[in-house]
Amino acid sequence: MTRSVKAPLAAWIACAGALVGLALVAYGIDAAQRADATLLTKFIARDGTLGTPAETIAHLGDPLPLLVMLAAACAIALWRGRPLDAAAAVTVVAGANLTTQVLKVALAHPRFQSVLGHDQLGPVAFPSGHATAATSIAIAFLFVVPHEWRPAVAAAGACFVAAVGCSVMILAWHFPSDVLGGILVASGWGFAVLALRRIAEGGGSGRRDEDRGRRAQVASRPAISVK
Predict the structure, then answer these.
(1) Which of 58, 63, 128, 167 has its CA 20 to 30 A from that of 44?
(2) Alpha carbon of 127 to those of 22, 124, 165, 200, 210: distances in Å?
(3) CA distance 75 to 167
């Protein structure tokens, strides 16, 4: 297995481990729960000034806007003649959001915190579905755009994820740990699909670089003639 495949696989394992650890801390340690709730109070817009823009941004993580953005990502991949990139984008978005919905039900648990007062959250909250949706579509676009566009797309995607994540906390829909959990779910799927994509390409850019290096070495050897 080449390094270009090992790296995303290791990152996927790291995301999975971090998600498990986060869930154990968020549900099992009282001090962490209090800190989570206290941090949430810093975001909640109690005066309502940020409520409307936050709700508008948060709803960009709803299923319909997500499907529209995914269709746009797939259109870019198909226009570039790269159907595997479109398949990767669909797999990341579908896999991440399905995983989050399963986890939300499996991990449903009340987390009452007195510091929140009347802004108590429901039991079905971890991981955040909106944070998962935002992160997964940001990753999906990284699969379909040209290489030279990726830094700008990554920056825009990070801003989008931050905006959606902050919005769901301003609206008191999710704890910070829920938002981080959604990001980890989508990131894990992104790294897993990246590894599969590189395997499908025959080992990824690392193998192509190695092949080019070997060809260069062969070309630089002096020719030997036998007369």
Answers:
(1) 63
(2) 10, 9, 11, 30, 40
(3) 29
122 vs 91: CA distance, rounded Å: 29
- Encoded tokens for 1: 């297995």
> Residue 70's closest CA among 163, 146, 140?
140
Residue with tokens 């823009």: 53
Q: What is the pLDDT of residues 42-69, one digit of tens each?
A: 888 766 677 789 999 999 999 999 999 9
Q: Distance between CA atoms of 193 and 15, rounded to whole angstroms?
A: 13
The DSSP element (H or E) to which 41 belongs, if any, is helix 30-43
Global pTM reads 0.85
- Reference 23, options 101, 99, 112, 103; nearest CA is 103
Q: Give dist(CA 63, CA 69) in Å, integer.
A: 10
Q: Is residue 204 a contact partner of residue 32, using CB atoms and an 8 Å limit?
A: no
Contact, 206 vs 37, CB < 8 A? no
End-to-end CA gap in the chain: 43
